[in-house]
Amino acid sequence: MSGQAAWWKHGVIYQIYPRSFYDSNADGTGDLRGIILKLGYLASLGVDAIWLSPVNRSPMYDFGYDISDYYEIDPIFGTTGDFRELIREAHGRGIRVLMDLVLNHTSHLHSWFLSSRSSRSNPRRDWYVWRDGSRDRPPNNWRSVFGGSAWKWDDHTCQYYLHSFLEEQPDLNWRNPDLKKAMFDMIIHWLDCGVDGFRLDAINWLIKDRRFRNNPAVPGAPFFQKHLYDRNRAEIHDILKELRGILDRYGDRMAVGEVFTLPPGNPSLSAGYLGNGEDELSLAFDFSLMYRPWDARRYHRTIRRWMGHIPQKGWPCHVLSNHDQPRGISRYGGGRDERKRAKVAAALLLTMRGTPFVYYGEEIGMKNCRVPRCDIRDPLGKRYWPLFAGRDPARSPMQWSPGENAGFTTGRPWLPVSADYREVNIEDESLDPYSLLNFYRSLIAMRKKKAPLNRGSWKPVLKGHHGVLGYYRKHEGETIFIVLNFTDKEKRVHVHDRAQWKVLLSTHRFVNTHFTSLEFTLLPYEATVVEKFGKL
Ligand code: ISL
User: Fold this and answer.
1) I want to staple 317 with a disulfide (CB 3.0 to 4.6 A). Which of 85, 118, 355, 365 is the partner?
2) Would you state the pLDDT for residue 264?
3) What are the E-state strand segments in 384-526?
4) Distance 324 CA to ligand 1 centre (A)
5) Which of 107, 144, 145 to mutate to test the pocket of ligand 1 (most atoms within 8 A of CB)?
6) Is the pLDDT of residue 241 over 80?
7) 245 C-alpha to center of ligand 1: Å?
């Protein structure tokens, strides 16, 4: 596929958590019509695609990641007609639409599982993972991601079924050819509907060890184990190759896979799912950066490692926040400087080589919301409170305005609105030329306009010593240099490159200011992007 056609390499992708984006019918939960109503905003932000966390029919034990019908839209979000309209309207504005595909498991209320569970001889029995055991002795020691054994005893058929996540999320058996065909048919259905691609949930869980061997223990950590036999099995690659074959038949469709590992971030493993760069996933997430403390050197090393693992023909992507992790701005720290740090992080995300993913609300600096215990909805929060408040803090309603419920709903919001919405909201930030929101807009617009930024090479020169990152992005004779001060101190930087430079975008300098060398005294938390426009 030509570089031109691969929009997913050069564009910016925006993740929407539909429950929390915009509520069009006052039931307190965001919906598809709400997204349609806000397409103008998304276009003004300049994003090329939106990825929607699951909107399929679901009993919502895991808020949509437990699908009970892959072909239907859950009524809380709207109808299939609304979904088709969203695709049409988004396409009309040049915005592509990605669906979240949960392939590892279904809801326990999916008709497939109801059949599978009905008897041992049901033709769909083998679509899920059933094993013998006795009531008090599960088939092996595998643990669920969400805690406890990954096996659930079924009284009716006296066997265990596997659930890598909640017991309401039984794992599918991808070794069964009929199941695999049913899943591929479903994928083809959505491609035919005009969906531009998919985010593949928990893709590294897809296949389990044929012999169901016990996972080795982690010495000294009784609740952890080395997930040798229930994750990252080699056969997953064969499935991804088949899937890529389907996508490629449609030309410009893509798949980005969620590769979650513990400890989080494993660049060689994540990049492994890109295959030779052209025959498996289009993009793979690696979450290393989300777990780094705010330190330029650590950031540099993490990015270098990630870039180093991307196959020659493959393409990286970068992400700072999503619906499972604490929000970026709440992780960077910095107290009163947190929004300055958020600008530096945004400049990094949007000037790197690799597709940037922006999580809704990140562009205005939404923080983790304080969710009182009685309002917790995430099953993880319910299970682990007060040790862990769960994932709700990063899923609070989008802050559209300083009005009631931050303009998200006229009903009662399904999760509390963050207390800071009177200052942190889209309406007010749109009016402030120096807001984080307008900085995101400028970064995205600049990235779109400048080929070195959206497709060029990456050459780091200032590698985080003294808290500063500096790197070149180059493409066909054009050169851009980015410099980022991660600290609250002034920093003197000097890169020997005498030429005519001008500022494209900066947190602290006027656009078009000229320089004859890359010699600056950076202000605290300065992020500056300069372009070479002539020789001296
Ligand atoms: O959420 C996590 C830690 O807080 C992760 O371990 C997460 O479970 C893992 O990244 C897989 O996540 C995906 O699948 C889950 C779903 O709950 C997550 O929201 C989804 O992103 C099960 O479908």
Assistant:
1) 355
2) 85
3) 457-463, 468-475, 478-485, 491-495, 500-506, 514-515, 518-522
4) 6
5) 145
6) yes
7) 27
478 carries an active-site annotation: no
Q: Catalytic residue at 72?
A: no
> How remote is the CA of residue 445 from the centroid of ligand 1, in Å?
32
What letter represents residue 47's amino acid? V
Least confident of 93-102, 115-124, 256-265, 385-394: 256-265
Per-residue confidence (pLDDT) for residue 222, from 0 to 100: 80
DSSP symbol at 143: B
SS3 172: strand
Does ligand 1 come within 6 angstroms of the Cβ of 324? Answer: yes
Question: Quick one: CA torsion of 281, 449, 399, 55, rounded to 10 degrees?
Answer: -30
pTM of the model: 0.98
CA dihedral 413, 418, 420, 424 (to 10 degrees): -80
Decide: 259 in ligand 1 pocket, CB within 6 A.
Answer: no
Is 16's pLDDT higher than 80? yes
Average pLDDT, the chain: 97
How far apart, in whole angstroms, are the C-alpha atoms of residue 10 and residue 33? 28
Q: Is the pLDDT of residue 2 over 80?
A: no
Cβ–Cβ < 8 Å for 444, 483: no
Which among 138, 141, 143 has a CA at the least distance from the CA of 164?
Answer: 143
CA triple 206-212-213, angle to 5 deg: 120
Q: Is the CB of 260 under 6 A from ligand 1?
A: yes
**Any atom of ligand 1 within 6 Å of the Cβ of 468:** no
Q: Is the CB of 62 under 6 A from ligand 1?
A: yes
